[in-house]
Amino acid sequence: MPFMMISSARKRHWPWLILLLVGVVFFAVEAGQILVINAPQRSDLIVVLAGETDRRPALALDLLHQGYATRILLDVPASARIYDATLTQIAADYARKLPVASQIALCPIAGLSTRDESHDVATCLNDEHGATRILLVTSDYHSGRALSIFRHEIRGKYFSVAAAHDDSQFGVRWWTHRQWAKICLDEWLRLIWWNAIERWR
User: Fold this and answer.
1) pLDDT tens-digit profile of 54-75?
2) H-run or E-run covering 31
3) β-strand 104-109 against 85-86: which pairing, if any?
4) Which of 66, 174, 180, 185 could form a disulfide with 32 if both were Cys (CB 3.0 to 4.6 A apart)?
């Protein structure tokens, strides 16, 4: 009798275990895609978040040419240097050589986290009078978290996001490349930290 009761209990748990396993597998397969939001909307200003300077500014310029906005704000780490030049100097030279140089401004960034960067951007937005609709440009894996942070930290503005892609860094089929898997895991840890702890501080 006890054996029959144990067997019956196990049978009742099997459907739940199978459902849990299916859920875990589904999440694992979709984990990379869940991170990505690529939904640019017509805006007053494009803000290019700091990092991946070979991808993000190029996407911002493409969006500018498509008419998504009329100005670009380029985030630049204020204290960073490459050999004997500051990143601010390099970014200024880059912008100055562009045909749309008059439509580009630099925003010095002191913070090391996306949340801190949003605070620096908020300060720069004070000089962008009338800019209430902001289009963020960042890396695809960072897009969902960045959008969540900016919407939470900067009130009174409407944000959308465009995702810059780099095959060497990330792909939604994260399990097929070591680098993609590292980026996916790291971004999920940052996303969990943001939602569980940092946003409530």
Assistant:
1) 999 999 999 999 999 999 999 9
2) helix 2-35
3) unpaired
4) 174
Q: Is 126 helix (H, G, I), strand (E, B) or coil?
A: coil
**pTM assigned to the model:** 0.88
- Structurally, how many domains does the chain consist of? 1
Residue 155: phi, psi to the nearest 5? -90, 155
Whether 61 maps to a domain, the answer reads: yes
**Dihedrals φ, ψ of 151, to 5°?**
-65, -35
The whole domain housing 58 covers 44-167
Closest residue by Cα to residue 46 from 96, 115, 95: 95
Residue 136's domain is classified under what CATH number?
3.40.50.620
Is 178 inside any structural domain? Answer: no
- Positive or negative, the Cα torsion across 113, 118, 123, 128? positive
> Are 115 and 27 within 8 A, CB to CB?
no
